[in-house]
Structures are given as C-alpha cells and as structure tokens.
C-alpha cells in the first residue's frame, strides 16, 4: 500500500515551517520529513518541529472530557455531560450577573478559523465584551507602533527572503538562534553577502555571537538607545531629507525629541559606550539598503509602544520603510500570532483587522453575521486586565489554547484569580497547569489532526492540512463552539451560524474581512494549496484594491485574481494621505527601578528546546533532556557576592513573588541583570516575579524588566 504524504506546517513558532507528514504504522501518529519546497525554512526544522508528533500520543494528551466531581477531582465524562456543564456554568453566570460576567480567553496558536469563530461566539452568542487572548503578551506594542506610523500592522512588510539582500540589519531584542532557529540562516546569509548585523540585547546570546556589533543595554533602556542613535544620525547629517519631505509627516517634533538625548547622556542610561553608538550609526547608514527588526525585548515593556516607535523613527529618518530591501519589521513569536489578532479574538477588533469602535466596520461584520450592529458589544478589557478581573466582575471563563497560570505576569496572583472563578472551562490538547484548575476540560484536536489556516510572521496565509485522525473522544474547537452555540444561543438554530467545517468557516471569514486592512477575501483553500501561501492584503475581484507593488504580467484569464502583497508600502503608506507618521517620544524609566531592597534587574525569555508555557514541549522526552528545567543566569561578579557556585539553588525575589532555580554563571550577561526562562511552572516559575505594569497604548505587560533581589538557598 502506498504511503500518503501530507504537506503541512509546524505547530509552533511564527515561521510556520513547512514539513511533510507520513502516517506511522499505528495510523494515529506521523513521521516528520523535510519539505524543501516551502521558501521560509527550505526544509530546515528545529528540534521542536522534528519532535512535534510526540504530543499526538495518547500517553501525553487528553482523550476524554474531564468534569470536576463532587469530591473536587477531575473525572472522565461524556461529551454531552461536559458540554451541558459548560452551558450551565456559563449560562448561569450570564443570567445572574449579566453578559460581561462571562469572559473568553483565546490564544495566538489558534488557527484563523478558530480565532474568528471564537470572537464571533463571544459577541454573538454570549454577548460579552470580555474577550482577549495571550497574543496581547506577544507583539501588541509593535502592532500599536506600526499602526500609528504606517496605518497598518503586519509583522514583516516584506518576505524573509529580503533580509540576506539588504546591507545592514539592526536586530533589537530578538534571539532567533533559540526562538526560531531556521530563521538564523537569513542573518548568516546576510553576512555571507557582505551585509552587517547589529544585535541589541542585554545578554550575549547565540544570536549576538553572530553579530558584527553587539550592543548590550541595560534592560528597559532600548528607547533611550534608539533616541541616541537618531541623535547621531541628525548630528552627522545622515538623514534622508528628500524622503522625509516627500513620504513622512511629524519630523520636526521627532527631531527635537531626539536631540535632547545626546550620546553621553544615552551612555549613562543604557551602559552602551559612545564609540559603539557611533559605530552602529555608521554601519546602519553606510549601505543603500538597511532594516530595523524588533521582537519581544523592546516590546514587552510598560513603554513598549514608544520604544518601538523610536526604532521606527530611526528607520524613517534614514529613508528605509517603503523602499526595496529596506524598512522596519517585527518578528512575531507565536505560531499564529499575526492571524490570531486579525480576526476578532482581541478585545478591540473585528475580523479583517477592523476597529470595533468603527460604525462602518460594525455594520459590515454584523451583516455577514446576520445580526444588528447595535447588538455587538464594545471593546472589553485587555488580557491582563481581564485575568485580574476574574472572580470579581467576571465570574465564568471559557479558555482556549492558553496557559496563563504559567505565561501571565504576576502569575501567582493570576492563579489565585482563576481559582476564585465560579466556573472555568478549558479546551486544550494537554492537561496544562491552567486546565488542572478547570471545572470542565475538553480534549481538542491538534495541528496534524485538523485542517485550517495560519498567518506567519511575513503575513503569508498558509494551509495546515489534516494528516491523521484524532483519537476517539477528541473533537475540534470548531465542533465545541458549534455545540455550545446550540445550548447557549437561544432561538433560531444559532449552531448553524457556527459550522464545524474549517473551510466553511474560512469562506465566511473571507467575506467578513473583505475591504478591511487585513483583507483575505481573495484567498481560498485552493489557492493556498497551489501557491504555497498567499500574502495579505489580497482582495477578491469584487473588492478591488491597488497592490503595493506591480503584479507580474499574466494571462488575461488570470488578470482579475489579486496576486497578494508580499511587500507593503512601496508606493504609499496605509494612512489617509499615504505618508508615514513620525511619533515624537522621549526616554522614561522602567516601571520598577532597582533600589536597596531589590537591587538587580530581572529579564525573561526563552530557550531553544522549549516553547511558550511549555505545556506541550515539556511532555517531549528529547526536549526535556535538552532543557530539563528552569535556571537563573547571572554574572560571575554577582554570583561571587551571593556566594553561589554553578548549579547551586538561587532564590529570585520580587515584590510579587519568589522563584528558585539552579544558578547558571556566565559572562554573557550584564553584572546588574539576571535572566530566567519562563517555560516552567512550580517553584521555578519566572512569571511569579514579573511586573504587570501595562503600556498605556498596547496594554502590554512589562515582562522584560523588574527589580529583584537574589538569595542563596542553603541546605
């Protein structure tokens, strides 16, 4: 019998690497093999992608609904009982306390179809405004800054393939060698082609080791660093005055703000020596083409939006955005972090990246949904604010694809708020730390067991294909919403408006997104299969739009099909007047500066063998062997003052909690800073320490900097 090979994509990070899956002998698992035809990874896979099938095993994943018993334990139950319990718990909270007493929390790993259906379910069936998702913790600051500068947020406004062909890249707060290893080749090829790489990171990471210049600022000072570089660009006459005049607005105020940040002042704030600042400006301005790329480092701050704006200002002042092989971009983190925020599971957005407060947007989407626009609730709380309101204003929560007990800031407090709920329902692949607290847990399908679309960090919409059948007793999230709509939606067969077939959901998503900033209306499953993905915006022939680059000549019969938009802003920006907006910003301190009681800064991040909260990767033996647990990375001088040796347990204490993990002593980190990865629960939970101080624009918490003290743990 001939083996069936399914071409699909990895379930983890925003690269969405292509891979081939072949069913194993048991018919339930799959074997991964190289898929060289997909241009993003060209066959390369990291350890997480290679071992992803391990989580398909019934030995590590959920295969039956679980319901909290009278004795307080989770026990297996039928689907009918579990769904009825959810309807009772959610419906009871809504009846007693109002629609906004029910919260919905989604995830950046959900497919576009699931994210779309979840947002629709919250607003149409539940009538609640209280919906947000864990992508708020990922790149919301970059999204806010990109939106106000360019009028549109798409992580990368150009394909990854442009990176090796530019002249210089400033990579700010990103460590792709560990977070998305197949992407590192683009930076390696950049250097092989004669380009240069500048890495901005408080730690000398595996990525920073590849850099031509490594700038190691104190955590939380990236804003001052960008302003100092812009000051030097102006002072040395390296601005692109023609570009500024013809393609931007707001330069005068932005220049004035930058000139208040002279190099010596910036050195005192950041710790980056003035000669390095001057060298970075020379390297960035010398070549014809250059890029600035940001990631979680500058974004996960209480001033993250302004910090990203400062880096965008640097790119604009030197004439980079909207030109070939140049510009600003953001490296999205989660698998569908881009698509996940485009179609309605974010508190303030409707499908197609429309604003929930826009009357025209509400009217368009309401017509697709067959409801009165006035019936749609307004914007609700952001992710952390929603979690903080659990058990008080919000009495019941439906959670899909997220594990905030591990991933949220001030995690012990969030865990306490979750425990205080009247009712919690969780849909997940595994029994995560959050699912363990639920009243009902529903086992749902995962990547290789379902078909659906995701949108990678380039804005390339992709088709994940089903390769194997799920175990008996497992259903898809779309089936869950279909069944809950029947129980909670009142009269008129509401479940018919929530189909379980993903392609049917996508066809509705196309209509809902038509004419919006993230227009998917010209994209079909067939095109995705035939073209290896399509870049949005891609309007349908019925929704014409000017592409941002000329389409290649084609046969007359194909002329009406929009080719998609790999490169944005080549002709104009997505603002009313087509010009990019400079945004004047000034340095301000982190929300919690070190003091005598808490004299050290903590920053958090990831390691190559684990992913996000670790709920899935911590169940894979090979990955656990490579990264078995948390650690505290600290400089030898700090370790000496503490009296700690390599491997000794060290307690890290903040105003919010305490975490204990083995010491990892290295000169690759600043002496005033410690680092912890955030993938683990228990006593080594890094997010027990982190500060939920929120950016005023993006509502992003300050994961990247908080004051702590270290304590030796004696036997």
From TrEMBL:
User: Which biological process annotations from GO are given for this protein?
Assistant: respiratory electron transport chain
* Gene3D superfamilies in alphabetical order: 2.40.40.20, 3.40.50.740, ADC-like domains, Dimethylsulfoxide Reductase, domain 2
Output a single Gene Ontology CC term carried by this record: membrane
User: MF terms per GO, please?
Assistant: 4 iron, 4 sulfur cluster binding; metal ion binding; molybdopterin cofactor binding; NADH dehydrogenase activity
Q: Which cofactor does it need?
A: [4Fe-4S] cluster; Mo-bis(molybdopterin guanine dinucleotide)
- What PROSITE patterns does this protein's entry cite? 4FE4S_MOW_BIS_MGD
Q: Which species does the entry assign this protein to?
A: Actinospica acidiphila
User: Would you indicate the residue range of the signal peptide?
Assistant: none
UniProt keyword annotations, A-Z: 4Fe-4S, Iron, Iron-sulfur, Metal-binding, Molybdenum, Oxidoreductase
Lineage per the UniProt record: Bacteria, Bacillati, Actinomycetota, Actinomycetes, Catenulisporales
Q: Could you tell me which InterPro entries the record lists for this protein?
A: Asp_de-COase-like_dom_sf, MoPterin_dinucl-bd_dom, Mopterin_OxRdtase, Mopterin_OxRdtase_4Fe-4S_dom, Prok_molybdopt-oxidoreductase
Protein's name in the database = Molybdopterin-dependent oxidoreductase
């Amino acid at each position: 019998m001939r083996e069936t090979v399914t071409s699909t994509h990895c379930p983890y990070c925003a690269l969405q690497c292509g891979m081939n899956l072949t069913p194993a002998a048991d018919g339930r698992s799959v074997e991964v093999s190289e898929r060289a035809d997909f241009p993003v990874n060209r066959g390369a896979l990291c350890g997480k992608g290679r071992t992803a099938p391990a989580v398909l095993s019934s030995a590590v994943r959920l295969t039956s609904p679980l319901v909290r018993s009278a004795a307080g334990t989770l026990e297996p139950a039928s689907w009918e009982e579990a769904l009825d319990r959810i309807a009772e718990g959610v419906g009871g909270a809504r009846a007693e306390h109002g629609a906004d007493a029910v919260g919905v929390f989604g995830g950046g790993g959900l497919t576009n179809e699931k994210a779309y259906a979840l947002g629709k379910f919250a607003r149409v069936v539940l009538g609640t405004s209280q919906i947000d998702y864990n992508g708020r913790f990922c790149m919301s600051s970059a999204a806010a800054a990109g939106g106000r500068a360019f009028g549109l947020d798409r992580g990368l406004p150009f394909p990854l393939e442009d990176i090796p062909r530019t002249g210089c890249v400033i990579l700010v707060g990103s460590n792709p060698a560990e977070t998305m290893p197949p992407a590192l080749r683009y930076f390696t090829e950049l250097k092989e082609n004669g380009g240069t790489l500048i890495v901005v990171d408080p730690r000398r990471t595996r990525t920073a080791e590849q850099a031509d210049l490594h700038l190691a600022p104190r955590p939380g000072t990236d804003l001052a660093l960008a302003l100092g570089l812009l000051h030097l660009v102006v002072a040395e006459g390296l601005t692109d005055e023609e570009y500024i005049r013809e393609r931007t607005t707001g330069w005068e105020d932005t220049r004035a703000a930058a000139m208040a940040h002279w190099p010596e002042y910036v050195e005192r704030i950041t710790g980056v020596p003035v000669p390095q600042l001057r060298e970075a400006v020379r390297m960035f301005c010398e070549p014809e083409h250059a890029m600035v790329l940001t990631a979680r480092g500058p974004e996960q701050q209480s001033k993250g939006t302004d910090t990203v704006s400062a880096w965008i200002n640097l790119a604009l002042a030197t004439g980079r955005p909207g030109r070939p092989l140049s510009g600003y971009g953001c490296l999205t983190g989660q698998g569908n972090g881009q698509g996940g925020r485009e179609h309605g599971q974010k508190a303030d957005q409707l499908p197609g990246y429309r604003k929930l407060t826009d009357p025209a947007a509400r009217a368009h989407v309401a017509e697709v949904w067959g409801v009165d626009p006035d019936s749609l609730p307004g914007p609700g709380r952001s992710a952390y604010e929603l979690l903080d309101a659990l058990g008080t204003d919000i009495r019941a929560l439906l959670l899909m694809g997220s594990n905030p007990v591990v991933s949220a800031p001030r995690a012990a407090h969030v865990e306490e708020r979750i425990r205080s709920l009247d009712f919690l329902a969780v849909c997940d692949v595994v029994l995560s730390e959050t699912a363990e607290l639920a009243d009902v847990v529903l086992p749902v399908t995962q990547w290789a067991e379902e078909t659906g679309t995701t949108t990678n960090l380039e804005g390339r919409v992709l088709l994940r294909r089903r390769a194997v059948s799920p175990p008996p007793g497992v259903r898809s999230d779309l089936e869950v919403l279909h069944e809950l709509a029947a129980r909670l939606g009142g009269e008129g067969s509401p479940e018919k408006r929530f189909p379980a077939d993903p392609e049917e959901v996508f066809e509705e998503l196309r209509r809902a997104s038509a004419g919006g900033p993230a227009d998917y209306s010209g994209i079909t499953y067939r095109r995705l299969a035939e073209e290896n993905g399509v870049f949005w915006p891609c309007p349908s022939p019925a929704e014409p739009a000017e592409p941002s680059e000329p389409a290649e000549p084609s046969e007359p019969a194909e002329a009406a099909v929009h080719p998609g938009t790999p490169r944005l802003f080549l002709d104009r920006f997505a603002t009313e007047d087509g010009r990019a907006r400079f945004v004047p910003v000034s340095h301000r301190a982190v929300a919690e500066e070190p003091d005598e009681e808490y004299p050290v800064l903590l920053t958090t991040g990831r390691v190559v063998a684990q992913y996000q909260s670790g709920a899935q990767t911590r169940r894979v033996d090979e990955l656990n062997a490579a990264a078995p647990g948390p650690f505290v990375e600290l400089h030898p001088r700090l370790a000496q003052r503490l009296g700690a040796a390599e491997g000794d347990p060290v307690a890290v204490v903040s105003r919010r909690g305490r975490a204990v993990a083995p010491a990892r002593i290295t000169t690759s980190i600043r002496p005033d800073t410690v680092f912890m990865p955030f993938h683990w629960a228990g006593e080594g939970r890094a997010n027990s320490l982190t500060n939920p101080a929120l950016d005023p624009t993006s509502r992003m918490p300050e994961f990247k900097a908080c004051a702590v003290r270290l304590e030796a743990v004696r036997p």
